[in-house]
Amino acid sequence: MTPLLDAYLPRYSYRELHSCDVAAAPRTIIEAAAAYQPDSDPLYRRMIALREMPMRLGMQSAGTKSNRPAPFGFQNFTLLERRDDVGLAYGLIGRFWRTNFGLVSVPDADAYLHFSEPGVAKLALGFSVSEGPGGSRRLTTETRVFCPDLSSRLKFAPYWYLIRPVSGLIRHRALSAIKRASEEAAAGAI
User: Fold this and answer.
1) How do residues 75-110 score in pLDDT, each as one tens digit?
2) What global pTM score does this model have?
3) What region, left, alpha or beta, does residue 141 occupy, with left being phi > 0 and alpha being psi -120 to 50 degrees?
4) 42-61 and 150-189 are packed helices; what angle lies between their axes, rounded to 10 degrees?
5) Strands of 87-94's sheet in order across
6) From CA 66, how far away is CA 85, in angstroms rounded?
């Protein structure tokens, strides 16, 4: 479990959790997690392009090609909190089942915490570090989604079950990249 997420999204409708063991100090791992950019992964770029294809085709047919948003990525999230020896928490609010994600601008953690609107889901993404086996550290990534009403749960459920397998694969790849960066940084510090 990602402890920081308890402060930002203690109740949730959907959850995904993945972890790996890392031979590095907690601060080094959190620094690597904070520096990680999903768009450095070719699989992530291909899956986001596929996910955004309906939106981009719609924009192209509507003649709004010049106003195309950047591909979805961490820049869409709000950093909610960072504790160098514990973890990171990011937030995102929207109607994720829509072709354009239906994102709501969230300037800071306070706005995220106090946002409450029917039909709009809240997502929290976290990375945390805890004690692992044999003196290693356990790096965990967790995603929680809260749908505030039946309507949003019914709209989000098919989307969640469609993207979840790919999301899980992407999370495992992210954990591997963060593990590699952490262990390389730890080896370079010796």
Assistant:
1) 889 999 999 889 999 999 999 999 888 999 999 999
2) 0.88
3) beta
4) 140
5) 14-22, 137-146, 121-131, 87-94, 78-83
6) 43
